[in-house]
Amino acid sequence: MATPRHVPRKRFGQHFLVDRGVIARIIRAIDPKPGEHIVEIGPGLGALTVPLLEHVGHLHVVELDRELSDRLRESYPAERLSVHQADALRFDFAKLPAPLRIVGNLPYNISTPLLFHVANSADRCSDLHFMLQQEVVDRMVARPSHPDYGRLSVMLQYRFRMERLFTVPPEAFRPVPKVHSACVRLVPRPSQERKAFDELEFAKVVVKAFSMRRKTLRNALHGLIPESELLALGIDPGVRAQTLPVEDFVTIANRLVELSS
C-alpha cells in the first residue's frame, strides 16, 4: 500500500527540503562518519535522515509530528534509527551519548528559542549544523555596530564559534517559504575561552542591555551597575549596547559578581 501524502502543518512550521543538490551540500558540510553520535532535529520526510543513515550506523531524531514519527519508525528498525517523538524545545539532549553532533532544518517559528535551548547542551557537543531563516543567521554572526547585532549575537558568540556556510533559495522547499534560508556551523568554545564568572549573571546583563536598544548603557543598565563602575572598567556609558564586543559584556557581568561577593 502506498504511503499517504503528508500535508504540511502550518502550526509546526513545516517546510520540507526537496532540492537534492542542497541536501548533498548539507551532508558534505556535516561530513558524518560511522560511530558518531548524531541527532537530527525535525527530520520531517527524511530529506537529511536518509543520507545521514547512509554514513552512520545509528541516528537519533527528534520529531514533534506524531504522523511523521510513526512513518520513520515504520521505515527503519530501532537499531538504525531512534525516533524521539517530542518537542525539541523541551527535549533533554543531555540524555543522548556524547560527544554529540546536532543537525537539522529548524522550524522558522521556533528557531531562536531552540537555539538558546540547544546552547545549554553545548558542552556535550562537538558541533552543530543548522538550516535557518537567513535573517536569523545574519543576527547570529553579526559583529558589533552592525544593525543585526543584538542579544542573539552576543549569547551565541560567547558560547560558539560560528560560520555561515551558504544560502538556500525558497524554491528548495515544499511548500515554498516566503524567505531565504542559510546554513550555519556552530562549534562550541572550550570552557577556558568562556570567562564569565557566572553565566546567569552574564545573560542578565545582555538581556537588560538590549532591552532598550536605542538607550545608552547608562540608561539601559541603570539600577544594575553604576556609571562610575562602567568608567572604571574602561567602558563608555554613553554608547549603546550594540557597539560592545562580547568581551565587554563579560567584563560588566564579572564586575557585578565581584561587587556582590
Q: Would you mind describing this structure in some detail?
A:
The chain has 261 residues and is an alpha/beta fold. Helices cover 34% and strands 20% of the residues. It contains ten helices and nine strands. The strands form two sheets. The chain has a seven-stranded mixed sheet with strand order 4-3-2-5-6-9-7. Strands 1-8 form a two-stranded antiparallel ribbon. Strand 5 (100-105), helix 4 (111-119) and strand 6 form a beta-alpha-beta unit. It is elongated and about 65 Å long.
Describe the structure using short key phrases.
9 strands; alpha/beta; 10 helices; seven-stranded mixed β-sheet
Structural class: alpha/beta
Q: How can the largest sheet be summarized? A: 7 strands, mixed
Overall helicity: 25-40%
Tell me the overall shape. elongated
Rg calc: 20 Å
Helices and strands, with pairings:
Blueprint (H helix, E strand, L loop, with lengths): L15 E2 L2 H11 L6 E5 L7 H5 L5 E5 L2 H10 L5 E5 L14 E6 L5 H9 L5 E9 H8 L9 H9 E9 L4 E2 L6 E8 L10 H12 L6 H4 L6 H6 L13 H15 L1
Parallel strand pairs: 2-3, 2-5, 3-4, 5-6
Antiparallel strand pairs: 1-8, 6-9, 7-9
In short:
The protein is 34% helix and 20% strand. It has 261 residues and is of the alpha/beta class. Helix 4 runs parallel beside helix 6 (151-159).
